[in-house]
Every structure is written in structure tokens, then in C-alpha cells.
Design a protein that fits this description.
The protein is α/β, with parallel strands linked by helices and 186 residues long. The chain has a single domain, classed as Flavodoxin domain (Rossmann fold, 3-Layer(aba) Sandwich). It is built from five helices and eight strands. It has helices spanning 16-27, 55-65, 83-92, 119-131, 161-185; strands at residues 2-8, 31-35, 69-73, 105-111, 135-136, 142-144, 151-152, 157-158. Strands 1, 2, 3, 4, 5 and 6 form a six-stranded parallel beta sheet that branches. The relative contact order is 0.19.
Length: 186
């Protein structure tokens, strides 16, 4: 059974993207999921990035290392990547030669109340993951627009059936992608 790490790029208590992330395990139960918190990471500072690093950084990197792949579920802030997520990806990109994101399969999902989805944010996330030598699921995109109409704020889950089907297919494709990446790495 694959171990999938889920990183949510929002720290907000009622984050729509957290609600999308909460839905994933019930849509595809053929994997084990672990939420990887980024809220306690300090701002990236190379002066602090020595040895095994600070405890929050070390735990974060170990959590990513233990996964077969990571799904990033993130909003778009001001037409771009949320600062907290960029910071987390920067911490996972070092040390340069042994970073936990090197050759790590990754998928990117995003939800927003707007009509354009998270297109610009996802482009920046993909660019950052490319720079870290992660293997991002190619070709497929998972943009969830007008998310407020597609979630139940009480259960904190995605309820729109069409979007649930698309999300399920995306996660299934991601799990297949992990198998392809593992074959490429052999």
C-alpha cells in the first residue's frame, strides 16, 4: 500500500483546501495518507539549515522522506503560491544533494472561491517542484473553482459529485504515477 503525504498550503482553520484534502482518503482507499504540517516551520534561513536542522524542520523532512509521494493541496494568494507553502518547499529542497524532494513523485491540487481556479499558483508550485527535481504528475491538472458551492462546511468535505469524480481520477492517476516513477528510478 502506497504512503501518500498530503501538504496543505493554507494555515487557515476553515481552509477550503484542507476540506479537499480531508476528502481524498475516502475517494481512494488503496493508499495510506499522512498529513504533513507546515505551520510550525520557521522562515527559511540558510544560517539555520545546518546538520539535521531544527526539530520542526527535521520532523517535516522525515515525514516527506517516509512517503512514496506527496500531494500538495493549495490555494492561490494574489495570483501566486502561498508564502507558507513556498517556505515549506524551500526547507524540503535542502541539503542540495540529498533533499527529500529529489525524485519524489508529486501531485498538485488547488481550490479557490474564484472562477479561474488556482492556475497561476499551480504553475509556480510546479516550477518550484521542477527546480527541486521532484517528479510532478505530467499533463493532468486539478483546479477546483467556486469551491464554496462544492463543499459542506459542517462535514468539512467536498460534496459536489462531479468534482469528487475528477479528484478521485486525479489521485488514482497519481498513485499510478508513483509506480511509473519507481520503475524509472530502478
Amino acid at each position: 500500500m502506497k504512503r501518500i503525504g498530503i501538504i496543505v498550503g493554507s494555515l487557515r482553520g476553515n481552509s477550503f483546501n484542507q476540506m479537499i484534502a480531508n476528502t481524498i482518503p475516502e475517494l481512494v482507499d488503496s493508499a495510506k495518507y499522512e498529513y504533513i504540517s507546515i505551520g510550525n516551520l520557521p522562515l527559511y534561513n540558510a544560517d539555520l539549515d545546518r546538520g539535521e536542522g531544527l526539530d520542526p524542520v527535521r520532523h517535516y523532512r522525515e515525514a516527506i522522506q517516509k512517503t512514496d509521494g506527496i500531494l500538495i493541496v493549495s490555494p492561490e494568494y494574489n495570483s501566486g503560491i502561498p508564502g507558507v507553502l513556498k517556505n515549506a518547499l524551500d526547507w524540503a529542497s535542502t541539503p542540495t544533494k540529498t533533499a527529500v524532494l529529489i525524485h519524489k513523485p508529486a501531485g498538485v491540487i488547488g481550490a479557490t472561491p474564484g472562477v479561474k481556479g488556482t492556475i497561476l499558483s499551480q504553475q509556480q508550485i510546479r516550477q518550484t517542484l521542477d527546480a527541486t527535481q521532484s517528479y510532478v504528475l505530467p499533463s493532468q491538472k486539478m483546479y477546483i473553482s467556486q469551491v464554496m458551492e462544492k463543499i459542506d462546511s459542517e462535514t468539512r468535505k467536498l460534496t459536489d459529485e462531479t468534482t469528487r469524480k475528477y479528484l478521485q481520477r486525479y489521485v488514482q492517476s497519481f498513485i499510478q504515477w508513483i509506480d511509473q516513477v519507481q520503475r524509472l528510478s530502478e
